[in-house]
Amino acid sequence: MKIVRFKYQDAFSYGTLESDLVTVYDGSPFPLQGVQSAVFQSTQQKIPLKDIKLLAPCQTSKVVCLGLNYRPHAAELNIKLPDLPLLFIKPSTSVIGPGDNIVLPPNPERIDYEGELGVVIGRAARNVAEADYDDYVLGYTCFNDVTDRVAQVRDGQWTRAKGYDTFAPTGPCISTGISPFNLKLETLVNGEVKQSGNTADLIFGIPRLVSFISGIMTLLPGDIIATGTPDGIGPLKAGDTVEIVIEGIGTLRNSVVAA
Q1: Taking Cα atoms as reference points, which of 230, 221, 225 lies closest to residue 213?
Q2: What is the pLDDT of residues 100-109, one digit of tens each?
Q3: By the 8 A CB rule, do 97 and 54 touch?
Q4: What is the pTM assigned to this prediction?
Q5: Does one domain contain both 92 and 215?
Q6: Which has the closest alpha carbon to 20: 61, 43, 52?
């Protein structure tokens, strides 16, 4: 199932995507606070994809991101593999959906793409055992960890570099029922492949990440774990179109514009 969130005739809804049609659902795939299960039922109404505006597929309280979590990326940077997952957080205000513009900050020096697999949390998760990780994951999405590379190096910590509005494109859907352990991931800029990796190369796998992060902070329904980027990172400029393509999920496409 590919779950989407969308706007149609001034109404906001969830649904499922099949080919070029969206089936409208009542409710949400995420449970309300204090409720164990979500109310998410098909209305059987179908709308052509071309008639709706796709949004980021979840409303998140936070995006928990991984730094240096692909072996080829560590080799690319000539950095020793970390002993523990290296975490940072992007604010909810950085999240945009498919088709939205990535807005460069004023006077940008180097703004990079980072294509990643996003793990979407389905219910509140705290101190989750690795063996139980899948009970708390709704599905998977495409994610672009847009980064001000100069600010990242200059500041020594990553909040400013990673936290600008529009620096967390997410979508186009939440794909459920797929295995995340061997998925091909590509990043294209203006149609040219810049990154080509596979989630089999993750240093810390998804069960470990869900367990480790939920032992530090409660993960809420709709939160995203961005699992890190493979090698091949590089710059974006105004006028570029960047695409994150992940097997079993789809293509997240965004344009880059000046401030």
Answers
A1: 225
A2: 999 999 999 9
A3: yes
A4: 0.96
A5: yes
A6: 52
Q: Say yes or no: 75 and 172 in one domain.
A: yes
DSSP 3-state of 199: helix
Coil, strand or helix: which one is 91?
A: coil
The one-letter amino acid code at 186 reads E
Cis peptide before 105 (omega within 30 of 0): no
pLDDT band at 34 (very low <50, low <70, confident <90, very high): low
Q: How far apart are CA 233 and CA 190, in angstroms?
A: 15
Confidence of residue 38 (pLDDT cuts 50, 70, 90): confident
Domain shared by 208 and 240, yes or no: yes
d(C-alpha 185, C-alpha 188), whole Å: 10
Q: How far apart are CA 21 and CA 16, in angstroms?
A: 8
The contacts of residue 241 (CB under 8 Å, 6+ apart) are 189, 190, 191, 253, 254, 255, 256
239 and 256 Cβ atoms separated by less than 8 Å:
yes
Q: Which residues is 185 bridged to in the sheet?
A: 197, 246
Q: Report the candidate in 14, 19, 228 with the shortest Cα–Cα distance to residue 114.
A: 228
Query: What is the domain extent for residue 28?
Result: 2-54
Quote the distance between the C-alpha of residue 193 and its chain's center.
19
